[in-house]
């Protein structure tokens, strides 16, 4: 049975989407994967209502059974980006922070890092889907504890960013078709290409974007997808960090050393580098028991306690090992972000050479210690310097 060859693609309004399902499902010898352009057209067609729910669900299942290719994932990402409202890319965000995994029992300490960056002038956009994995504790459920506001469209998100430098946007408010796709893969009971692709949208074209994964092999997939999207000019210039997140979420685990791949793209030049954020809690045990019951209000408490390990109020609700792990998660995650900011600016605070990992760890500790200050915090000085250089 010969494989279906290249298809003549038309607009989403006129294309016969049965041809894509036939290409994916024409038997063991006759089927093939979708090309980048075909996958992009499939998503755009579904978003516009021209590809049906049955067709989209069939395509998602067929891709999943065989294993999604780089072109298929990258094409779906491109289709999602093409389905964005045209004003999302105009928000002038510094850091794109997808938060789709949630955590099984811990609080999202990453919110304290994002809040710190926002307090010191960096514009951060968080986006996620709290319905995708309802059994987990998602970032969205903890926003109120730190007064992080939501944006439901580009205009409201712009207003929140102008005031707070940080905003959270639901995936379905970014691209409504993501809600439809999530409902489909929940009905199927399978992971789908959408769960990988949603993390890669970078709706505001931020120069720094974070990508976490949990399952082995997804680091290589994310790397190749990023390279493909840079090569096809779907991504603007910037740096994409790819790492195994704590319980899959976009936060570093301080109990292990973490390899971070950085895909850097500018015009036709795409490079890949890597660095390792070392363990900050070598030989550390404990801290897991009881974390599932922690209130999100602890995020605010940890934020305002200048000496967490000496806080009587904090010790009433968290063990010492919990506090140590939370604080170290903050430092490890902030270390990675500082290394990316340094790479983006190609300059560092008070240094002529790029930051080493050790210097970034020390700088992260200073930034966290001086989180209440705009004069003593190195991040504020860095941000001011960057803005002056941009002018």
Automatic annotation (TrEMBL):
Residues 20-83 form the Glycosyl transferase family 3 N-terminal domain. Coiled coil: none annotated. SUPFAM superfamilies: Nucleoside phosphorylase/phosphoribosyltransferase catalytic domain (SSF52418), Nucleoside phosphorylase/phosphoribosyltransferase N-terminal domain (SSF47648). Keywords: Glycosyltransferase, Transferase. It comes from the Bacteria. InterPro entries: Anthranilate_Pribosyl_Tfrase, Glycosyl_Trfase_fam3_N_dom, Glycosyl_Trfase_fam3_N_dom_sf, Nuc_phospho_transferase. This is Glycosyl transferase family 3 N-terminal domain-containing protein.
């Amino acid at each position: 049975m010969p494989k279906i060859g290249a298809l003549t693609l038309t607009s989403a309004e006129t294309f016969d989407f049965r041809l894509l399902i036939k290409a994916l499902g024409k038997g063991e010898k006759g089927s093939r994967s979708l090309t980048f352009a075909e996958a992009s057209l499939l998503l755009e067609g579904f978003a516009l209502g021209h590809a049906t729910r049955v067709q989209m669900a069939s395509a998602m299942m067929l891709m999943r059974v065989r294993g999604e290719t780089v072109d298929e994932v990258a094409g779906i990402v491109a289709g999602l980006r093409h389905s964005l409202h045209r004003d999302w890319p105009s928000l002038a965000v510094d850091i794109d922070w997808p938060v789709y995994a949630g955590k099984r029992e811990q609080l999202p300490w990453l919110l304290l890092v994002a809040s710190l960056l926002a307090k010191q002038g960096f514009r951060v956009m968080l986006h996620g889907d709290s319905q995708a994995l309802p059994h987990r504790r998602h970032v969205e459920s903890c926003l109120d504890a730190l007064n992080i506001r939501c944006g439901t469209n580009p205009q409201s998100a712009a207003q929140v960013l102008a005031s707070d430098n940080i905003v959270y946007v639901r995936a379905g408010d970014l691209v409504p078709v993501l809600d439809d796709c999530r409902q489909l893969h929940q009905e199927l009971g399978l992971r789908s290409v959408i769960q990988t692709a949603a993390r890669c949208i970078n709706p505001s074209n931020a120069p720094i974007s974070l990508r976490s994964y949990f399952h082995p092999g997804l680091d290589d997939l994310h790397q190749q997808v990023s390279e493909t999207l840079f090569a096809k000019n779907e991504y603007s210039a910037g740096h994409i960090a790819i790492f195994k997140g704590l319980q899959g979420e976009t936060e570093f685990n301080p109990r292990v050393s973490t390899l971070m791949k950085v895909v850097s793209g500018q015009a036709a030049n795409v490079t890949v580098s890597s660095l390792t954020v070392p363990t900050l809690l070598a030989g550390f045990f404990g801290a897991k028991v009881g974390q599932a019951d922690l209130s999100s209000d602890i995020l605010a408490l940890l934020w305002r306690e200048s000496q967490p390990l000496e806080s009587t109020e904090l010790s009433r609700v968290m063990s010492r090992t919990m506090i140590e792990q939370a604080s170290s998660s903050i430092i490890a995650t902030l270390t990675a972000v500082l290394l990316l900011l340094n790479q983006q600016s190609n300059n560092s605070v008070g240094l002529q050479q790029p930051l080493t990992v050790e210097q970034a760890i020390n700088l992260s500790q200073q930034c966290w210690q001086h989180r209440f200050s705009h004069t003593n915090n190195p991040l504020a000085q860095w941000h001011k310097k960057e803005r002056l250089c941009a002018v």
